[in-house]
Write a structure and sequence with these properties.
With about 280 residues, the protein is an alpha/beta fold. The protein has helices at about 15-20, 25-40, 50-60, 90-105, 125-135, 145-150, 165-180, 200-215, 230-235, 265-270, and strands spanning about 10, 40-45, 65-70, 75, 80-85, 105-110, 115-120, 135-140, 160, 185-190, 190-195, 220-225, 240, 255.
Length: about 280
């Protein structure tokens, strides 16, 4: 027998959860999201992706209310086309990340809106990221100077180091030991270690949106597959990860379902909402 959950808000991560390996939403997932909407459930997209990308997915799904972008750094009202919450990395954090990048010869990428900034040294993982997100990447030989000269340095939403997982794991330990009280670190993909403010994550975005809807956390069902989803998975009344999730996420969720390529979202909507 299915656990009885009064779901009023369904929170969905995008990559690895709602999106399949082709980075598209299946027809079955689309159909079941519409059925959830017809039951009065608020469907909320919360992702590391930027506002334009999430607005596009919202349009595909006929969703017209709130989204959480850039790992929660931006809460956006789609209907009224306005930002209702936004946080940036502090200058001292960006300074420190550049120092770490230089000392460890690791590629630092920085994100503002729908633009990615990176140094111009060759990196195969940056090419993969470019194909993955299909967003502009601006490169500069001296990135910190470029960002300062163009008044971008203090308006960055998040950062990421990009490399092989084993190298990033070593770097994670160095950064965590020094900055754990101020910054959150998580792997959205094995080659991407994202960095954002402790007080600005997917949980804070979900919490803000739930308050706007006047929905209690016990009535929230959240789905996600990556470490950057853990904060919102722990916050939700019930949490689910698809079977393709990162192994480190499993202990934080109530349930594992099928994979994103087998319509995990549709399966969970059928199980807990269409009952």
């Amino acid at each position: 027998m299915n656990k009885k959950i009064d779901v009023k808000m369904l929170v969905l991560d995008m990559d690895g959860t709602l999106l399949n390996k082709e980075h598209t939403i299946s027809e079955k997932n689309k159909k079941y999201i519409q059925l959830a909407k017809e039951r009065g459930v608020k469907v909320v997209l919360v992702s590391g992706r930027d506002v334009p990308a999430l607005k596009n997915f919202s349009k595909i799904l006929n969703l017209n209310e709130y989204i959480g972008a850039m790992n929660g750094a931006i809460v956006y009202d789609v209907k009224n086309e306005e930002i209702i919450g936004e946080t940036y990395l502090r200058k001292e954090h960006v300074d420190k990340l550049f120092e770490i990048s230089n000392n460890n010869n690791e590629l630092l990428t920085l994100f503002k809106d729908n633009i990615i900034y990176a140094s111009d040294k060759p990196n195969p993982f940056l090419e993969i990221l470019n194909r993955f997100v299909k967003k502009p990447i601006i490169s500069s030989e001296n990135l910190s100077i470029y960002l300062k000269e163009n008044n971008i340095y203090e308006s960055l939403h998040k950062a990421a180091f990009i490399d092989e997982y084993e190298n990033l794991k070593k770097l994670y330990d160095k950064i965590y030991n020094e900055l754990k009280d101020e910054l959150s670190l998580s792997f959205s993909l094995p080659f991407i270690m994202e960095i954002f403010r402790n007080d600005s994550n997917k949980m804070t975005a979900v919490q803000k949106i739930a308050e706007l809807y006047n929905i209690d956390r016990e009535n929230i069902l959240a789905m996600g597959d990556g470490e950057n989803d853990i904060s919102m998975l722990e916050f939700a009344g019930h949490s689910v990860s698809p079977a393709n999730c990162m192994p480190s996420v499993v202990k934080y969720v109530d349930e594992i379902c099928t994979t994103n390529d087998r319509d995990a979202v549709a399966e969970i909507i059928k199980k807990y909402i269409l009952v």
